[in-house]
């Protein structure tokens, strides 16, 4: 594993866990009605995508072991560059269905880095 890999894995894990905490106990309707919640979740998802994008640059072999990495980076790009077309249902679905497995993978990779 490249020297900076653990930093990017840690950053992605922390942001993913934050996004998960932010939506805990919330419904999609809650998410739609709360612009602060949407903004906070989107920001954390951006950080996940950015950290994983940087990981892909410094350590492609480790990055390749993260199944959803291309989608995470792609969503980050949409949130940052195509913010006017953000699909709230897509973001909510990612948070509900993909963050927990991603967190588990990131933890496993960090355990091997220690």
Q: Alpha-carbon distance between the termini?
A: 10 Å
Q: Report the structural category.
A: mainly alpha
What is the approximate shape? globular
Query: What is the string of SSEs from the N terminus onward?
Result: HHHHHHH
Low-pLDDT ranges: none
For the sheet with most strands, the description reads:
none
Tally of extended strands? Answer: 0
Count of runs of 4 or more consecutive helical residues: 7
As a percent range, the share of strand residues is under 5%
**Mean of all residue-level pLDDT scores:** 93
Helical coverage, percent range = over 70%
Taking all Cα atoms into account, the compactness measure Rg is 14 Å
Fill in the keyword field for this structure.
single chain; 114 residues; mainly alpha; 7 helices; 80% helix
Please render the helix and strand layout as text.
Layout: H1 5-23, H2 28-33, H3 35-58, H4 60-63, H5 69-81, H6 88-97, H7 99-113
Helix pairs in contact: 1-3, 1-7, 3-5
Molecular structure report:
- The chain has 114 residues and is mainly α.
- 80% of the residues lie in helices and 0% in strands.
- The protein is built from seven helices and no strands.
- Helix 1 (5-23) packs antiparallel against helix 3 (35-58).
- The chain is globular, with a radius of gyration of 14 Å.
- The termini are close together.
Briefly say what this structure is.
With 114 residues, the protein is mainly alpha-helical. The chain has 7 helices and no strands.
